[in-house]
């Protein structure tokens, strides 16, 4: 590091943060990339980790490894817990170590978490899907439900355990429901003696009246048809009003109510931007919207702070969607502006988004894709999906093993990543029970808070 060069701090190693850092390769700056995980996560394929197709390493390469040739970057594992926009400093914490960093330019790309629309207690029974931990917990719950169903003597309980419910019919929910259906009806065929997993119910619920609303009416209709053809029950206009260990309560747009008894529940319904957005808003003239996204200027900067950029999922600008391409392009744009400042050739054009389209996989060899006026369905859309996702997986090693795992899953019908552990299933809730004072360190832990009410882990 060269102390006389401008210091760029980037928060986040997701699409926004990583692509900003890469764009600054060769620039006359020192970069510190701070992220609360040591990997770059390809979130669009999390559902394949959750359903046993891919391993975590294939979609989450080490950030250090990706950036090892780029000498102007230092990668730090730490969670940013404080910011002072006036003093231009951030505070970050990891495993008992606190770090203070000062910056000349700051790019905040901390993404978004799951939103339960004010019902955070639903999370206990219906985990979301935002991280590797989430995907592994869901994998343990999906395969665990089948195991307990094989064990139980109670017919009603067996039926409940063989009911899988996915909430949210966006791309993640559609892909997840499609994969659980394939897993139960094909992957585990012939492996159980008492239960017939192909008789499992897989439900996909959404309060909206269509699946995949941004894809337009025609593709939404095709996607719903295909889901139903493979045996997914799609319930639309269905708002979830309650989630508990045993199932969910629904209220339909026509006021009808319904109770669904279900074992494994997956929440793929809403997003809430990183709390860092609110922290920035409190120290600036910027505002946050209902989803906690920070309203930025046309150049992705924070009002009153031209040295601070907010990009990707946690930014609100021109109603842009929370998708990977927006994060990549805004991250690269912020980097270009910093290069412009450093070289004395300022970038004055506002950020302009180039929409490259969207796609969702429904089943083996079946997908929908929309790019401008081009709409594809079925096998051609699936091939386009395969090629594009392979292209964006980082590193040849991961691309190669992903291709092998896809061949095993899509051609052979098996899945190579079915390992689940007790810790994967219960660790999130166990850590929650230890309370906010629980501070893990690498050599052990500080004294955890006394746990008053110990709950037994269950699949529900
Ligand atoms: C299951 C799923 C499926 C998706 N499918 C698609 C799809 O098919 N197509 C598509 O275009 N988009 C898809 N998306 C959306 C896409 O992944 C996001 O839009 C994109 O990841 C946003 O990039 P980002 O850099 O803003 O945030 P993220 O990629 O979420 O990265 C945030 C980074 O910030 C770090 N971080 C967060 N808080 C802190 C903190 N306090 N301190 C330090 N570091 C912090 C995180 O560790 C992470 O490294 C999907 C998302 C999910 C969850």
Automatic annotation (TrEMBL):
FAD/NAD(P)-binding domain span:
7-331
Q: Which UniProt keywords apply?
A: FAD, Flavoprotein, NAD, Oxidoreductase
Ranges of Basic and acidic residues compositional bias? 449-460
In its keyword annotation, does this UniProt entry include Acetylation?
no
Kindly state which reaction or reactions the protein catalyses: a quinone + NADH + H(+) = a quinol + NAD(+)
Q: Which Pfam families match?
A: Pyr_redox_2
Q: Top EC class per UniProt?
A: oxidoreductase
Q: Where is this region: Disordered?
A: 440-460
Q: Which GO terms describe its molecular function?
A: NADH dehydrogenase (quinone) (non-electrogenic) activity
E.C. number(s) listed in UniProt = 1.6.5.9
| Family the entry assigns | Belongs to the NADH dehydrogenase family.
Protein name according to UniProt: NADH:ubiquinone reductase (non-electrogenic)
* Species of the source: Luteococcus japonicus
The organism's taxonomy opens as:
Bacteria, Bacillati, Actinomycetota, Actinomycetes, Propionibacteriales
């Amino acid at each position: 590091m060269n102390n006389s060069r401008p210091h760029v701090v980037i928060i986040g190693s997701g699409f926004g943060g990583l692509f900003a850092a890469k764009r600054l390769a060769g620039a006359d700056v020192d970069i510190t990339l701070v992220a609360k995980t040591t990997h770059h996560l390809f979130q669009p394929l999390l559902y394949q980790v959750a359903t046993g197709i891919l391993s975590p390493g294939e979609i989450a390469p080490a950030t250090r490894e990706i950036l090892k040739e780029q000498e102007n970057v230092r990668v730090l594992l730490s969670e940013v817990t404080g910011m002072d926009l006036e003093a231009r400093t951030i505070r970050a914490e990891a495993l008992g170590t606190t770090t203070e960093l000062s910056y000349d330019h700051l790019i905040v790309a901390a993404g978004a978490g799951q939103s339960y629309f004010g019902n955070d207690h639903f999370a206990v029974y219906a985990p979301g899907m935002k991280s590797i931990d989430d995907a592994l917990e869901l994998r343990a719950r999906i395969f665990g439900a089948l195991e307990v169903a094989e064990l139980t003597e109670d017919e009603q309980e067996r039926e409940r355990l063989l009911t899988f419910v996915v909430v949210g019919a966006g791309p993640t929910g559609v892909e997840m429901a499609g994969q659980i259906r394939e897993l139960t009806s094909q992957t585990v065929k012939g492996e159980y003696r008492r239960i017939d997993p192909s008789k499992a119910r897989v439900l996909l619920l959404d309060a909206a009246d269509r699946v995949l609303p941004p894809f337009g009416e025609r593709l939404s209709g095709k996607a719903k048809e295909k889901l139903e053809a493979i045996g997914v029950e799609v319930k639309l206009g269905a708002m979830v009003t309650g989630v508990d260990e045993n199932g969910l309560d629904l209220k339909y747009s026509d006021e009808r109510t319904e109770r669904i008894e279900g074992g494994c529940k997956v929440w793929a319904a809403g997003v809430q931007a990183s709390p860092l957005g609110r922290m920035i808003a409190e120290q600036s003239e910027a505002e946050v919207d209902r989803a906690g996204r920070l309203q930025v200027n046309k150049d992705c900067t924070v009002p009153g702070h031209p040295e601070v950029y907010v990009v990707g999922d946690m930014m609100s600008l021109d109603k842009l969607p929370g998708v990977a391409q927006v994060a990549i392009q805004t991250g690269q744009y912020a980097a270009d502006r910093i290069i412009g400042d450093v070289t004395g050739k300022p970038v004055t054009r506002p950020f302009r988004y180039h929409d490259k389209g969207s796609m969702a996989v429904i089943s083996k060899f079946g997908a929908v894709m929309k790019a401008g006026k081009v709409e594809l369905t079925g096998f051609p859309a699936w091939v386009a999906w395969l090629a594009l996702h392979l292209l964006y997986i980082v590193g040849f090693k991961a691309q190669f093993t992903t291709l092998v795992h896809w061949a095993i899953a899509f051609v052979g019908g098996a899945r190579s990543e079915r390992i689940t552990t007790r810790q994967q299933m219960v660790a999130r809730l166990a850590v929650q029970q230890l309370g906010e004072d629980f501070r893990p360190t690498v050599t052990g832990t500080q004294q955890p808070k006394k746990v008053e009410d110990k709950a037994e882990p269950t699949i529900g």
